C-alpha cells in the first residue's frame, strides 16, 4: 500500500528550480555560455528595489544551471558588484540589501548577498504583485 503523503514529498532542489523558473520566466534570461544575466523589458520596468531582487533570483538560477551548462558561477555577490551590474548607486544598493536582510529576503555572509531558498516564494509574491500593478 502506498502512503498518500508520498505525493507531497519532493526534493528541495526540484522545488526551488520550479519556483525559480516560474518566477523568472518573464523577467530574466541567462546566457548559456557565460551565465550572464539579462533582464527582459518587464524586469527593466520594475522599481529598482525589485530589480535587485530579480537579479539575485537570477543568480540563484544561474548557479543551479552552471554545472549542467559547463560554466562556473558563484551565487553570493558583493554590494559593490551589484552596484556595477545594476547601475544603481552604492548607497541605494546597501540600503535595500539592509532592508531585505531585516525582512529575511536576502542572506549575507562576509559581505556577499544571496536569496536563501526559504525566501524564494516570498520574493516571487513580491515580483508578481509588482507585475500586476504594472498592467
Q: What is the general shape?
A: globular
How many strand segments? 5
CA distance, first residue to last residue:
49 Å
Percentage of residues assigned to helices:
55-70%
Quickly name the level 1 CATH class.
Mainly Alpha
| Number of domain modules | 1
- What is the CATH third-level topology name? Arc Repressor Mutant, subunit A
Label the structural class: mainly alpha
The largest sheet has its strands arranged as: 3-5-4
Number of helices: 6
Major beta sheet, specifics?
Answer: 3 strands, antiparallel
Shape-level CATH architecture: Orthogonal Bundle
CATH homologous superfamily label: Winged helix-like DNA-binding domain superfamily/Winged helix DNA-binding domain
Strand content: 5-15%
Mean pLDDT level = 90
Q: Encode the helix/strand succession as letters.
A: HEEHHEHHEEH
Radius of gyration in whole Å, from Cα?
A: 16 Å
Low-confidence stretches: none
Which key phrases capture this entry?
135 residues, mainly alpha, Arc Repressor Mutant, subunit A, three-stranded antiparallel beta sheet, two-stranded antiparallel sheet, 6 helices, 5 strands, 10% strand
What would your notes on this structure say?
This protein is mainly alpha-helical and 135 residues long. It has a single domain (13-134), classed as Orthogonal Bundle (Arc Repressor Mutant, subunit A). 56% of the residues lie in helices and 10% in strands. It has helices at residues 12-24, 41-44, 48-69, 79-86, 90-102, 120-134, and strands spanning 28-30, 37-39, 77-78, 107-109, 112-114. The strands form 2 sheets. Strands 3-5-4 form a 3-stranded antiparallel β-sheet. Strands 1-2 form a two-stranded antiparallel ribbon. Helix 1 crosses helix 3 and helix 1 runs parallel beside helix 6 (120-134). The radius of gyration is 16 Å and the shape is globular. The mean pLDDT is 90.
